[in-house]
Amino acid sequence: MRSSREIPLVAMVNPPTSQYSENWRHPLARTDWFDARFYADLGRTLERGGFAMMFMPDALAIPEDGTGSYATTVRTGGKGTIYLDPVVVASVVAASTSHLGIGATMSTTFLPPYAIARTMLSLDHLSGGRTAWNIVTSTTDAEARNMGMAAIPGKAERYDHADDVVRTVLDLWATWSPDALRLDGDARVFADPDLVSRVPDRGGRQLSRGPITLPRSPQGRPVLMQAGASERGRTFAARWAELVFVVADSPDTMRSLRADLRERARAAGRDPDAMLVLPAVQPVVAATDDGARNRLAELESFLDETEVLTILARLLHADPATVDPDGDAVALIEAHRGATGSDGFEEMLIRASRAEDLTVRGLAFRQAMSQLKPQPTGSPATVADYLCDLVDSCAADGFAIMPALYPSSVEDFVDGVSPELRRRGRLPTTPTAGTLRDRLGLPA
Fold this sequence. Notes:
This protein is α/β, with parallel strands linked by helices. It contains 16 helices and 12 strands.
């Protein structure tokens, strides 16, 4: 069980571009993304560094611009050009580690609940109870068309459907009582049929009748993760999620988001302490503060102004030829509301642009460097101070660490910040035995 002082760390892994747009061509980044050893090595490094979990995001289409073209994303290696199936990657990591939690993304909009329930429960069994399901509703028409639909349903419809899917997945996981699997050779009883049931009829849509073809897993059921950003997304997260990823540009915003999510969870009849809120951060670490600042400057030097402006225009479905680099960033975002498919993300862009009075050029560089989320830069002690202060001031329960480079940013953190956090009693000194729920201190 996790100590109350320990800080849960979760690594979001999505090469080749990560959140830093030039990862794929940086000399310190590995490019063997299609080799299982790439993910096995990352998993072992994170486990050595005391991380609670590694999770893989997903998208089901290459991002398109306003004309429906994917050319800019493919040419620049933009985020979303390449996504391996996250469940397959999670399986590789599970087989290569002993204690690290593994999270995989599956969409409620396109996948039936039975398929989600069986896939995630299978992974939970084979990993010894170390699995989390990252719940997404998907956001783009391009994804919908790849999955046989004419367009993505509206946000309200997607979340209403997601409520039904998650409820059904949970019901399926509960169709076997904990002691249903008997394996009693003398009595010739494999499992007790009286302890295996169908999905209860809740009076609404019946998305699956069950029972599922698997007994309970070592941790009872996989952990539920979700990124609650919009108003509807936060309501959904407060109802279901045990880990909530948030993107916030300041400690005050983190604190406000965490308080809001906890209050929504309480209103939904949940214990707020059974939900961990993890803001996204992208640490830049070196032996000294000056060294880390130099490393950040070196990362920035790889950016090209024309390229980052083109990437921002694609993101906002704007015509790159008409985008004024010296124009007002807020005006550009407002003129293309809804382009990204994420209200919460667009609100964050506007908030960050207003806070610093950003031009379009400034926003483009910030987006390419992933500087719209906190980027603590400094020595291991400086970065550890930052993380500990946020937890101690109720701005965070833990963190979603987003590496700039794979694997060097992960190694910098694990070799520098992890030992510093261990010295302060904020990370376990030895691997925590048991399930992912045990590591996170979440109820079964």
